Amino acid sequence: MGPGSAGAIAADTALRAQGLGFSRGGRRVFEGIGFELRPGQLLQVLGANGSGKTSLLRVLGGLLPADEGELCWGGEPVRGGQPEFAQAVAYLGHTNGIDADLSGAENLRFAARMAGVDDALSRVADALRAMGLDPASQAPVRTLSQGQRRRVALARLVLLRRTLWLLDEPVSSLDAASGERFFAQLDDHLREGGMAVVATHEVLPAASRTLQLGE
Which of 47, 97, 173, 198 is deepest in the core (most CB within 10 A)? Predict the structure, then answer.
């Protein structure tokens, strides 16, 4: 088990989408999306660039409103700003969402404080180490490579331990070894009852089901 094993993930619920549709600028991006995701399951979302993968993840995370259909968490409809759902979700898009002026450890401690979770230095160091980063480094993120920056963002997932991971091309910019580290953490997350929706160009062996967009 990695650092994410320090405590149980509260994943006794399910994410269910029924008839989701979304448009932008008068253009239909996707429609008729339906699935149910339970603890320990991973949904991979496949499709070419422009097929709507990112928009779907943002709708699932409550960051964009669907034009139609229903999204439920634990049997209850998801509403904008619903705190119980927001506290269960970790979203990682194409951008890393980290402060370039802070170090990796400082970014993680700040994220932990904002999320109201333990920001102990030992937990932060474990999360960074899980992604192959030196927990003792005080280098500002701006001095890091793109791959190292992505690993800082992924270490934040390990630290915060949200139940539902919504990930947009999570291994972009990573080398093979770093990708393996991330997938090991993803396997731990699922094994402990977490859930994940991953937009990707590649088939994921751990996927429980697949959603193909743009066909």
Answer: 198
| CA quadruple 142, 145, 150, 151: dihedral sign | negative
Tell me how far apart the alpha carbons of residues 117 and 160 are, in angstroms, rounded to a whole number: 7
Tell me which H or E stretch contains 27. Answer: strand 27-37
Condensed to tens digits (0 to 9), the pLDDT of residues 143-191 reads 999 999 999 999 999 999 999 999 999 998 999 999 999 999 999 999 9
**Tens-digit pLDDT profile for residues 37-68:** 999 999 999 988 888 999 999 999 989 999 99
CB 198 within 8 A of CB 53: no
Q: Which residues pair with 24 in a beta bridge?
A: 27
Do strands 209-212 and 42-46 pair parallel, antiparallel, or not at all (unpaired)? parallel
Residue 143, judged by CB atoms within 10 A of its CB (0-12, 13-18, 19+), counts as exposed
User: The tokens 């500002």 sit on which residue?
Assistant: 140
Q: Is the pTM higher than 0.85?
A: yes
> Which tokens in the block code for residue 197?
């929706």
CB atoms inside a 10 Å sphere around CB 198: 24
Contact present, 32 and 21 (Cβ < 8 Å): yes
Residue spans of alpha helices (H) in the chain: 53-60, 83-86, 104-115, 121-130, 146-160, 176-191
